[in-house]
Amino acid sequence: MALIPPFFLDCVVGIGIINNSKKQWIGTGFLYGNYIEKNTEGQNLYEVFLVTNKHVINDLSKIILRFNPQEDSPAKDYELSLNDQNRFGHPNPKIDVAIIPINTNLLKSEGMKFQFFNSDIHTFNKKQLIDNETTEGDGVFVLGFPMGLIGTDRQHVILRNGCIARIRDLFENRNTDFIVDALVFPGNSGGPVILKPEIINIEGTKVNNKAALIGIIKSYIPYQDTAVSLQTKRPRIIFEDNTGLSLVEPVDHIFETIEHYKKLKMIPTNINNNQQFQYILKK
Questions:
Q1: What's the mean per-residue pLDDT of the chain?
Q2: What is the rounded average pLDDT of the residues 125-146?
């Protein structure tokens, strides 16, 4: 019995850099398909984006994306140059969401294994979460590559269990993010947060039987403790620990970032030998 659609795992991508000639995995991203329209054959058309945090990619001129081939062979890395014409952040500087337009035709032609979250099918925005009576205690899955644990031969995402710790501030428009009780580490930044389907519910409340993308991991919430000198009574060292609570940007901020990108009308990005890695994929 699966609680998460297996193809959700294939939406997640490791993000890396080359540091002193060595590959270093620094964060997580995922492929997201923004619905455009139906074509003449009645099939849905999507514009595909790599979604991650601003702080993962903002100061970089080049990143590496890793994908698994369909057959059982080692993963393949793709270099992607970044600039202000292919990297778009949410217009609010406090909202940590960034997108890069992606053309998946190259991945398809080279036999890579990948999927994307469909904006019209696989997501719950804030209004849908409220209508669904989502609340504290509801289960979530957090997908990503903590501490760069991406594997040497194949990319396989790490899934961790958690639950929503506080979300009513978001529903009441008092905060722009929400909190989950899920232990994350450097490398998890930019990873998707999935609402867990449940088969039971308290009488008088709604039951959610659908796994859906509800947000993006932004950071863990740290706890700081200060060591004080016995002689001088002055603080000497500050220790920082991971509380196990993590901040999440809601999926609404992806929608808003894409709308901002559309208004800018910038040119597409390129990947590897000027092959365009952007725009519509028919799924």
A1: 89
A2: 96
185, 146 Cβ separation under 8 angstroms: yes
* Residue tagged 């540091």 (tokens): 19
Q: What is the 3-state secondary structure (H, E, C) of 63-131?
A: EEEEEEECCCCCCEEEEEECCCCCCEECCCCCCCCEEEECCCHHHHHCCEECCCEECCCCECCHHHHHH
DSSP character string of 146-197: GGG---SSS---EEEEEEEEE-HHHHTTS-SSEEEE----TT-TT-EEEEPP
4-13, 122-131, 220-229: which range is least confident on average?
A: 220-229
The pTM of this model reads: 0.88
Q: In 56-86, which positions are buried (b, 16+ CB within 10 angstroms) versus exposed (e)?
A: bbeeeeebbbbbbeeeeeebeebebebeeeb
Ordered structural domains, the chain, with CATH: 7-282 (2.40.10.120)
Residue with the larger pLDDT of the pair 282 and 6:
6
Determine the residue type at 39.
Answer: N
The label of the residue with tokens 């329209």 reads 37
Cα separation, 1 vs 183, in Å, equals 25
pLDDT band at 7 (very low <50, low <70, confident <90, very high): very high
